[in-house]
Amino acid sequence: MKTATVLFSALVFSFYAFDSGAADLTAREIMQKVDDRDDGDNRISEMKMVLIDKNGDTRTRKIKTFAKDLITDKGEEDRRTIMFFLEPADVKDTGFLTYDFDAYDKDDDQWLFLPALKKTKRIASTDKSGSFMGSDFNYSDMTRKNLDAYEYKILKEDEVRGAKTWVIEAQPKTQEEIDQSGYKKSVVFVRQDNFVVVRAVHWTDIGDKLKYLDVTGLELMDGVWTTTAMTMTTKKNKLTEHKTELTFYNILYNQGLDDAMFNLRRLEKGL
């Protein structure tokens, strides 16, 4: 269930060998392996975001991202991510900071710095279902989901670009989770050889729309399955309303990032 982080996050994958025992996994166990993947550490990358409206008109943004894992005293693996918009001029120096906590009972923290207003806005839990910077991704897509907040069911097996996948339905247990994520149901396609989510369909809670995630580029880098391209498309009544294309490049792992990179002071200072 983690996209992008995701994106941005999110997005972000590692390798597991598939064996005969994997065929006996439950849907919940499969999603746990997705969540437990090694997604690389001390990562620096650049991203091109293309926003496409229903008329085919486009807007392009360029972003630089830094991400680091932190091990807590309890042995939990938290992730901190900071993004800086480089282009175009109207969003330049906008910053986005995320504290993605491993503990499911702890709400993730997110802040958005708006240079035009010289103001940092904390993203409240009630706002995480909103669009991230005009894209088809929600703020909630930028962090890991609480696996215990969902019921999982294997619907069938399928293939995505020649790779075998499990097709798994994820149903939120509470209205609170629906309100925060913005989705009342999701179906995810998990590759059986590496536990990467390569496709997903999300049913939005508001507006009766469908969002289609598709990982169009996936490469093994330094032993980490890494997303190099993905799209999110919003449709209603089978008509495309909007689409976001993401391309990731200049991806580097193990860069020795300092903890001081990931705080509000650095967010407001910029690159």
Short description:
The chain has 271 residues and is mainly β.
Structure description:
- By secondary structure, this protein is mainly β.
- The protein has one domain: Lipoprotein localisation LolA/LolB/LppX (outer membrane lipoprotein receptor (LolB), chain A, Clam).
- Helix content is 8%, strand content 50%.
- It has three helices and 15 strands.
- The strands form two sheets. It has a 13-stranded antiparallel β-sheet.
- Strand 12 and strand 13 form a beta hairpin.
- The longest helix has 10 residues.
- It starts with a strand and ends with a helix.
- The N terminus is likely disordered.
- It holds the Pfam family LolA_like.
- This is Outer membrane lipoprotein-sorting protein.
Main traits of this protein?
50% strand; 3 helices; outer membrane lipoprotein receptor (LolB), chain A; Outer membrane lipoprotein-sorting protein; signal; lipoprotein; TP_0789-like; 271 residues; two-stranded antiparallel sheet; disordered N terminus; 13-stranded antiparallel sheet; mainly beta
